[in-house]
## 1
Amino acid sequence: MSDTFYELLDASNRYRCRKVDQLLLIQNADTDVADLHEMLDLGEKMDIYTFDMVCLA
Amino acid sequence: MSLHDLFLTRLVNVKKDVDALWRNQAENDDNSTTDNSARSDSGARLSIVNKRSLLNRRASITGRAIPGDVLNNSFTGGMKRSSFSRQSSLTSRNAPGVDMSSLMTKVDDHAPPDSSMKKLVLPRGTRKYSDRCWLEKDIKTIRRDIVSSGVFFPKFDQGLKSYYNKDWDHAKQCFELILSSREDGPTIYFMEQMRKHNFVPPKDFVGYRVVEQ
């Protein structure tokens, strides 16, 4: 789930979620940007969370 | 971990998940009187054990064997026990020497109906969310190994932060610790990413996974 959805959850459910990635969403036109800092400024940041329900061990 | 071990681990994990759905007849009867709307339709559920016993009794009368597919496809509600048959065939092809009978829940078709018989209780219908669901036996069972040790979540979090902070040595330690006790998709993904770069963060690493829109 996205961080937008995650933030809608109350605290008792948030702690059951796990952040698994963080994305920098950039437009195609921005891919030519050579400066990494500029790319960080231009891009939209998004955290991705998961909710583990499967018995893994 | 070899492919064979990995296969066995997955097989046992699936069994654990399915086991959570099996209940003793007496236990189920107790629950049906106390649980909420999702279990109020227990009368609509088919007793697999009873159905199997009935079909086998018919077979003994007619002298004909009941094919497994008939049993599997005779379950109502569109729910089939096909996962068992798939696993059985997979196992026989891919993991010779594995005794499936030890991994599957056994149902004695010839035993008389009594309170110790088990029924496969599949979830049906809608159910309103309640905080109390986290205290239910099924939920505890399928989340037990994730939350019981108290290590998995914090270690993964530390590893992820280190990964994005370019401290890949520490990230590797954290992820290896997780993988030593369980198989976890996100952990495997980040280990693969680091392995691709020989566990040294590239110069253009921005601390985010860049996705073009």
## 2
Amino acid sequence: MTQPLYRGDKTDFYLAPPNVADGVNLAIHLNRPILVEGEPGCGKTMLAYSIAAEKKLGAVTKIPIKSTSRAQDLLYRVNSLRRLQDAQSQLNPNAQFIYPYLSLGPLGNALHQPKRSVVLIDEIDKADIDFPNDLLDVLDTFSFEISDLPLEEEKKCKTTNGFGRKIQSDKKTQPIVVITSNREKRLPEPFLRRCIYVRLLFPRTSDELRDIVRKNTKLTTRQMNEKILKAAIDSFLKVRAKAVGSAQKPPSTSELIDWIRILHWKGKTVQELTKDPELPPYWQLLFKNMSDIDAHEAVAKKSSEAKS
Amino acid sequence: MNDGFVLEGLFLHLVRSGFPLGIRDYQDALSALRGGFGTGSRENLLWLCHTLWARTNEESRQLDLLFRRFPFPSDEQVRKIAGESIKQPEVEQLPKPATTGQPLPPTQPTKTPIQDRRSVPSAEIVSRNREEGMGLPRARVEPNYEEMFILARRPNVSLRALTIIWRRFRAARREGPRVELDLDATIDQQCCMGILESPVLVPARRNQAKLVLLMDVSNSMLPWQDFQRMIVESLQTSHLGQAAVYYFHNVPADVFYRRDTLTRPIPIEKVLKECSSSTLLVFSDAGAVRGFNRRQRVQESADFLAQVWRHWQPIVWMNPMPADRWKNSSAEKISQLSYASMLHLNEEGLVRAIDVLRGKPLKAN
């Protein structure tokens, strides 16, 4: 292979499991989009940034999807309103053309630019059900046509804007497309077929979690010693084990990192953490709504009563 | 051992088992092999096949089972497979395993170097004709009762398809606050008065299609319970003007229920009032599942339809049983009633049902 492989551990803010890194490499090799799914807060979005940082591809083009997003908005836009305003004045001959009011959208720009980049289409499941299908052809061929631009204006558009009717990405500079989904809506079958599917699972071992926390908080062993970190992670795993399946949103990696930052800031000790591992200091921070907090408190108290 | 067959054979079997794969998926697999993915060990190759070809749990399970039947190629063979395909056009190469490819291991069991073959019950594939796809496998061994089966749900119509079908049901009318610009009227006004006083606004077009769904939750409808829930779920993204779901037991009568557990009753008069001038979809087997022909059931259903027909039109009765199973049961009699059209509950049936609800009469069968 000509390019160095993505390893997922070279950056200082992200650690990808080996199977995820393999999936990413496969997708890059086959020029297919990467569809990332996983529970909220497990680092779906960060994966894109980690790919960009590790492959030194510069800034990530992030496209947050809304329920009103249309596929065409990602490709190009025509500022009709400005054109209408300009057309009111006789002094503005530009208004008879479309090309001065034409600009490329974020995905169009990524396809057009002569260097490779990472495009992150965030939370695609928020859009309407036809959105993924509209995007399918563009992601398949890495090209699209600006149908709003009349043929006779193509030359002028090329000289002023730098692009013509057809935007085609060069094979070597095709963007790496990362798409995240929270599974709110099911994606269409052809779209799923086209993507390489990567599922981010919660880390299995406390060692993995420790590495992730160290990378993200940038706390050295001197600032937070190994024993406190281990006690905190063990306690976190206990809280999570109780919450998985019952809580609306079980605590995930992002909550863990915030929580450990607080523990460090407040200077908590191992004794405080091990006193009641299911209700450690500031455990409320691990949950995101009232009912989860209440439910966890009740469960933890019940089990501690049973023990005593 | 035949060289080219490891991936081709597996791929062709997957296609025959109904995996929606194309030649491009196969080419991508070869390209990945050429790039060094999926080589080295059996697990790696399996991982590659999973990542590229399987998308659901059910597909993964089928792929696992099929994969275990195929011997693992050496690195050299992999290179050869990947290399060969560059020289040869893909279309010519694909039918190859049908003639030269090694068939499934059960016919030549001694040649497979798989260690855990015994754990896989060998199966004989019964197929009359290759074009017809793979027949049902007939197990040669006693079934292992401890084996865990993953039974994947297969709804009559997928959730996505349901949403798309609901969206066909449109009756757009302008209603609500005046928010949209009426361009023609605005230009007219400007031409008449010489100046643009203020733009003319009209209400936005909204889907006014109204639908009442009546779901039978009696025991005979139990196999479709999950699907019924899915229908209700799909209504949330349907953009219908109004969609109300009520439940009943066996035969629709004077009282409906708001929950599928037959709780929170609501009298029919109230429903008729709340959902006036709506259309009606009934989901019930009408006795076709058990095949009983009960006069009372037919009479009660007819009375009910006659009662609501004055309020809700058109009425479509979706039957989860296929039409040939309605014969000699109450369903046949109910389907002959003039109030409602009865259709089989599948994708095609639902599309036709929406046509009927929009006012296109069903063609006489």
## 3
Amino acid sequence: MMKYIYLFFVFLSVSCIPDDKFGLSTWKEIKEFEVPGQAGVSVINKDSLTIVIPVNFDYDQSSVAASKIVLSNMASSTPGVGESQDFSEGAVIYSVTAEDKSIAEWAVSLKIQQSEVQLPNSDFNLWYDAGGYPEPGDGITTSVWSTANKALALVGSFNTEPISDGNNGFYAKMTTIQAPAIVRIAAATLFTGSFTDGFPSIDDPRSNIDFGTPYTSVPNGIKVMYKYNPGESYEDADGNPLPGSDACDIYVLLEEWAETGSSTIKRRVGTAWHRSSDIISDWTDLNLTFTYGELPNSDPDYMKPADGYAPDGSKPTHITVVFSSSALGDFFTGAIGSVLEVDDFELIY
Amino acid sequence: MKELNKGLLVAVFLLIGSYSVLLAQSEKDSIYFLSKGRLFISPTFSVNNRTAVNDDQLLRFVEDQNRLEWDIDVNVGYFIKDNFSAGAQLSYQFSKEDITYVADSNEITEKSNGQSITFSPNIRNYFGLGKLKIFNQTNINFSYGEELKRVYREDDEDKIRTKELNFGIGIQPGLAFFVSDIVAVEASLKLLGWESSIEESTINDNEDEKSKITKNDVNFSVDILTLHIGIGIYLDQIKKNK
């Protein structure tokens, strides 16, 4: 008997299926790369193995440590996150080693940009197929814009889409639709940030979104072309009729982000917000001016920040831009058929 | 229908058991008598293969699939007294799958390889006369299994390694029909008593996010899906052979 038990434990110790049973991974890409205080989105070129990070003219390039590096699975990089490098002499080489020990050398450089920066693809002309549904930009790892289409795609639907502007370009059309299951409506939204991985939460749609993208400039306001037509029957989450009509939401938040352990504190630097039920049938320029610092008490509560305000004079580290066809879509309140169309978003300096 | 089948099987076991006890008087004269000193060995083998091409499933379209599973078991026992044996069963299970499917417009290929080994010391009580006997086997099971899976996507690859450790105590009643004095066809049902398992899964060597699932299961229901059929070879008394 003891011999069998001994053999059993010998099996446990020597029988492991080797990692290279099907071969080892050759992937050695850098998917995301960020440095603190960068002025815009990092541009990653997988063909030339280069990364260009926009920074402001007064950025100290002599000692910069990456705050975020996302690599291919099982790959490692040298140097890594938190290891300071001198970028003042030009590109710094980051060596990425794949699981199979093959190495790719990525050239990472900082690029001083003009202070009056615009967000990439803010004319909404670029869209890509994210797997049966459209998303703005040229790819999931490079686009600063996203939508909630990923959640609806699970049931073969989407409600934010590109529409040809008849001039070789596109605008974004958002439509509040009847939800396929469980909840009443699915409001459409277009925002800076990303939709989270994993199965989306149905009862807390806001938790599915990581709002915001790096941005360090100080604009006076924004301008965007838009049209809005609220749906006919304005109802709450239970389908009870409400007075008035559905409203669109267009807002831009300038924020100062600070990492505290596993969470991020987002203190408000500037606010520009438009929520309206007005029917706008023709393309109309919407101009909003940023309010820097604390909002006046007369402003509605929904404009107020959850994490408080940054000290006076703070510069933003991130910008959150949100368009929604139903302002209270988070709470499944709105009108099926509400349509918000936007084009040519611009930051005004 | 399943409930009816369960009832029928239990009834058959009970009837044969009662019949055997009633006719137990002159059993020692039978060539099928399981006397102290005899040995039995019961090997079983099973294989399962699935291949599929262009199989439209609920959430994915399987372009190509090839799955192979097999297991081999050897149960050896020694009759330490008449109609009562003590022994052990050693089992090895192997699985291999190569599948390519399309989900959310993305083509994904998965390759996996798994194996497990089970060691089960057991005792058996036999009842009955002649060719047909009923037995009850009580097991203690130790099992260890592992699986390596690679998931190949268009822009990256995942490695998923799973290990599972099981411990359990089970009762397995069965029938043995002797087709000769040493060869019997055996059928037994697994009546799971108690099973405890720990499963650990690591994705892409990320030990910080290793998942660990511990399960304890107590269950005395008859599961006709675990009907085991095999051949038992009952060797004569060792002393007599010498």
